[in-house]
Amino acid sequence: MNRAILLAVAVIVSPMLWGQGLLKNAGFSDIAEGTKWPTGWECTKGRELYGYVNIDGLASNDSLRYVAEKAGVPCLPVTQSFQCVPNTQYVLLAGLKGDGTTRPYVAIYAQGMKTPAARVNANSEKWQRQRITFNSGGARTFEVQLHGDASMARSAKSVVGMAGFDAIQVYRADQEPKETAPAVPFVAPGPNIALDKPYTLSPRPSYRLCTDADDKIQLTDGTYTVGYFWTQMTTVGYSRAYPAMVTIDLGKIEAIAGVSLSTAAGAAGVTWPETIFVLVSDDGKNWRSLGDIISLSLKHGLPSADKYSTHRFATADLKACGRYVQVMVAQTPYCFMDEIEVYRGKDEWRALPPQGKPVTSAKDFFLETKIVGSIRWRLASDLAAAQTAIREAGLPAPASKTLLAQTDLLAKRIETIPNQIPDQFRTVLPLNDLHADIYAMNAPLLQSRGFNGLSVWQANRWDPLQPTDAPEAPAKITPMRIDLMRNEVRAEAFNLLNATAQAKDVTIAIQGLPEDLSISVRDVLFTDTRTRIPIAAALPEARKNADGAFVSVPAGCSKQVWISIEKPAKPLAGEYQGTVRLTAKGWSQTIPLTVRVADLDFPEQVTMSFGGWDYTNGSAAYYRAPGNVDKLVAMLREYHADTPWATSAVTPKGATFDEQGSLTNPGDLDFTNWDEWVERWEGVRNYYVFLSQRGSFHGAEAGTPRFNLMVRDYFTAWVEHMAEQGLKPHQLGVLILDEPHANEQDEIIIPWAKAIHAAQPDIDIFEDPTYRDPTKGIPEMFEVSTTLCPNVPMMIGQGDKFREFYEAQREAGRRLWLYSCSGPGKLLDPIYYHRGQNWWAMRTGATGSFYWALGCAGKAGTSWNAYSQTGVEYSPFFVGKTSVTAGKHMEGIREGIQDFEYFTMLRKRVRRLAARGAPAAKLAKARKLLTDAPVQATVDMDVSSLTWSAPKDRGTMDRLRIQMLDQLAELK
Q1: Which end of the chain has fewer CB atoms < 10 Å from its terminal CB, N or C?
Q2: What global pTM score does this model have?
Q3: What is the pLDDT at residue 302?
Q4: How many angstroms separate the CA atoms of 681 and 676, rounded?
Q5: R_g (Cα) of the chain, nearest Å
């Protein structure tokens, strides 16, 4: 797939430029006499795996190639040392390519450091140009390392893998060639008047790996961090500080021309700041806003959103005065800072009227300015990417010049955007007409590659998609196929591409299939996220016109259409041939569509227990969108949710106890909240409550005789009330204390669980331990739990011993369920993270699947304005104040639950047939599939692969579940 507009800066340069930086023989063209090894480069072990190539380069015919005969071959990198000036910005440039199993990466290390100052890699089979900035900090000597990484190979028997390196160079940032540098390199407008000045921090730094006593001086001490940013003590770091504020006292009123802030992101769940506001004050009480450094620094370039790097956001466009400078950073869940610099302006500015907008309400200012700043960032970022794509397109000079002139006009329009939130604003892309015009700049580039008008292109429906994505060249249409049972939901998708300069409406009509086959056509919307990584995940029903469903495809963009077959009913069975007919003004196209409905019935009640801390009790205000509660519950039921969660607000109220601990008023307990919640979820399998308890109950210390008696009577009264509602004790589950990971937490859980079970042994004690090494937990905590629910990303990261521990717990009689709680949820892969959890359940013998959190919309109550969110959004669908809309991540969960049911049905069928004496040969294929499929689906998963942007084969689970479907049909 070719991404016509790239976020990273990538430009065409002449080979000569690569030789003018700090590295020798950057293009590998100079070969030592009598050898085939490039001069200036060293390799002390595994040198035979690297070699000079003169027929495959980026900047010229020359390059360095790494060849891996099999995975895991030990070798050392190719290296070269160079000198730097301390506390200075530098740029690493690299040309890289891999082959899918082997990938190259380049890292720079300061002398004596174990973590890199900068690192870039590539997964493409074509040459990619990578650019990343870093600061030398206090170091002078660095080493660049070229690595061939064969760890992506699936086994030691993998076929030969290759990775290429070319045009590896390091420049001081102010000496970088203009062909690769940002359009307007940042130049400090004056001396740094914040150097060694005192400051206050709010809140206190909280990220343990970089928090120390010197946090109070490290932001203005003039020393930049070197190494992996958030593990260095020279960094100031936060966890869940929103915003993080630094207030610098310059000592006197100063003229201020600019401000810069150094930070890092792009790995380990750390995303770039959304906004960095600058405020000034003469007295530390009355503040004025000077703007958002990120918006003001756009012309100096942006860091790549999907790889680790350090970056200095900087502006020299201020014209203000003040004694106090406050920097307000919106970056979560983590926030990391290094140096903050304030640059002196002209003395005569002190005579000017106060500059900037007065700030009366910090909260309102923060939210409004954050949204407007994010809009500007989105537009400017996409415009900068469009300009880069135009420069790289190889168009004739007159055409390129004309297009770039049009982008200059668009840039001026961005400058005129008003400082107020548009009415009914949503982060659906394009954001507005100006944004649509920016995307339209891609149309002539598509035309230059052979695309004309509208066309259809196809990829895996789960692959990440960006608005300007397109295939390398026009391709033939592949017939679509959907295989399923009766009473289940499965889907397929295709993409439309508009290479014209105007938006196009396309009508979709499904023809030739049975009329009673329910089919849904969904318009896959592009939406931005709070971290400004666009996604194609929202699945509202497509709009309707007189001819059927239709979607609008913006100029220069792709649009995905999602086709779902919704629960076929009897007597449907067999293979049906139809077409998807697409029409627009002056254009039409058809895609063959085969729907196979197996003569099998998917059960009404699935085996898997499913839920996700929805907290829909009471007004359901926990996630700040109580107006959508009925729609939320209806959607969750539709997607097989049968284990809702409530907060402790549903526990019986009004209990009183005598001195011994007996409940004195069992008939007068208030069950109002419980009853309302149960009625809302009438008929489900389980009702789970997060008790959030500590070491006592109504004043009685846990574990004492009085405590035990109180808990006995209280839960007995609760169970007796449930009996009046027709509910059994086992339908009540309680989470005593969430995510225990320390022995003192286990010591709280144990007496609670023992007291509850002494009175009501059928109540489910649910615990979700988060010990990285579960053998460190108190064994009795695991023993008193009825259900253990380990974290799947932790299981993946910690390896076989972690998984085997919980499988042993299951063998010992505990029920095993699984959960995940990573975020932001919409940047996680719908296949590996959401659907894949249910394949891990097949592999481990788990029978429950839970996700934090069904309904969470980033503390804003809406997924439709991600820029307004002040917390992390975890919801796998799209929440509105009064609406709930399907999303790909939720579809991934449902498909995973259905996959698990296939597995369960096939396992039961094999057992029944074996019990009836069926020949072993007849069952051999199904048995092998039951053993191998869960491993095949999960074997390539690691923690980094759970992100949506990580490359992977997203078709494996579909292929395996169709094999299970075939076996079920064969063994019917």
Answers
A1: C
A2: 0.81
A3: 75
A4: 9
A5: 30
